[in-house]
Structures are given as structure tokens and as C-alpha cells.
């Protein structure tokens, strides 16, 4: 009986948020995968030590930087395929540890000055599949670590492609 109980505890999921499952990313970071679960915002019960939050194909209609603040070691946020129409510039680095932000296939139409000032440590930014018609000289200001990679890299188009398609159209 005791052995069974111990086993049951060991295999129990880390969190029990319906629609999400906790696991690890390829570099062993603690991850919550809430793919296509109908969320409009972050469920309250997620473990604050989570570093990778995956919400592709959900129903987020805004990106509130501060709503991710409880995840103090946040490394990656995936909001691919949501309904985010705009980004709010921030005067402070709200998410200083955020390195990867995926916002492809949302409803972004413009990216004003300092759109990403909340997360100055970004190294990867995905914006493909948005109808971005206006970009300013300072849209990406302060993002000194952003790596511009060829579009052939894993995951598809990156910053370079956004700029390229804007200039080309
Ligand atoms: C997240 O979960 C979905 C299924 O719910 C799966 O298809 C997808 O590959 C997972 N993503 C990652 C990065 O583990």
C-alpha cells in the first residue's frame, strides 16, 4: 500500500490546471503547455516557477505584460495564433528575463515606439502572420540582444522577415 501511494505521488502531474500540462522544454526548463485550451488569460493556478508558457491557439485578446510578472524566471511566452491586436509600451522592464516571444498569427496591425520595452532581454521574436502596416524607427529600441536570423531557421520567420516584407510591400 505504501509503495503504491509513493508511486502515485511520483507520477502525479506537477500542476492540475485543466487544459494545461506541465513538462520540460528541450533544455529542461519547466514548461506549461496550454495549447488550444480556450484561455482568454493566464489561469491563476499555474506554478510561478514556470519558465516556458505555451498558449498557442487560445483566445487572448490582449497582452498584459504585468500578468506574466508572477513568473519571475519567465524565459519564453508562446501566444501564437491568438487575437492580440496591439502591444503596450512600458516605461519599465516588466519581464527582464524574457528571452523568446512568439506572437505570430495574431491581429497586430501596428507596432509603436518601444513596443517591446517591457522585455529588453529578448533574443528571439516571432511576428509572422500579422498584418503589420506600421512600424516606427523605435519599435525595437532597447532590444540589444535580439538575434536576427535567416528565415530558414527553425520556427519560421523572424524579425528580418517582418522588416523585409514591410519594405517590399
Ligand atoms: C504542446 O501540446 C500539444 C498538444 O496538446 C502538442 O501538440 C505540442 O507539440 C506541445 N508543444 C510542446 C512544445 O511541447
Question: Strand arrangement, largest sheet?
Answer: 1-2-3-4-5-7
The bound ligands are: 2-acetamido-2-deoxy-beta-D-glucopyranose
N-to-C SSE string, H for helix and E for strand: HEEEEEEEEH
| Total of DSSP H or I helical runs spanning 4+ residues | 2
Cα(first) to Cα(last) distance is 68 Å
CATH level 1 name: Alpha Beta
Q: State the helical fraction.
A: 10-25%
Structural class: alpha/beta
As a whole number of angstroms, the C-alpha radius of gyration is 17 Å
The count of DSSP E runs of length 2 or more, i.e. the number of strands, is 8
Number of domains: 1
Strand content: 5-15%
Q: Residue ranges: pLDDT <50 for 5 or more in a row?
A: 151-158, 163-169
Categorize the overall geometry: globular
Largest sheet: 6 strands, mixed
- Architecture (CATH level 2) name: Alpha-Beta Horseshoe
From the 3D structure, determine the CATH topology: Leucine-rich repeat, LRR (right-handed beta-alpha superhelix)
User: Mind telling me the CATH superfamily name?
Assistant: Ribonuclease Inhibitor
Amino acid at each position: 500500500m505504501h509503495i503504491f501511494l509513493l508511486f502515485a505521488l511520483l507520477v502525479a502531474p506537477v500542476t492540475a490546471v485543466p487544459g494545461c500540462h506541465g513538462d520540460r522544454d528541450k533544455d529542461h526548463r519547466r514548461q506549461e503547455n496550454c495549447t488550444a485550451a480556450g484561455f482568454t488569460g493566464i489561469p491563476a493556478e499555474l506554478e510561478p516557477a514556470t519558465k516556458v508558457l505555451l498558449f498557442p491557439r487560445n483566445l487572448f485578446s490582449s497582452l498584459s505584460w504585468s500578468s506574466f510578472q508572477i513568473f519571475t524566471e519567465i524565459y519564453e511566452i508562446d501566444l501564437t495564433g491568438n487575437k492580440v491586436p496591439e502591444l503596450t509600451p512600458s516605461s519599465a522592464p516588466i519581464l527582464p528575463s524574457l528571452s523568446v516571444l512568439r506572437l505570430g498569427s495574431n491581429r497586430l496591425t501596428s507596432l509603436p515606439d518601444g513596443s517591446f520595452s517591457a522585455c529588453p532581454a529578448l533574443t528571439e521574436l516571432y511576428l509572422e502572420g500579422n498584418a503589420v502596416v506600421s512600424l516606427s524607427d523605435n519599435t525595437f529600441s532597447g532590444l540589444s540582444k535580439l538575434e536576427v536570423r535567416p528565415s530558414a531557421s527553425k520556427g519560421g520567420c523572424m524579425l528580418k522577415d517582418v522588416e523585409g516584407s514591410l519594405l517590399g510591400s
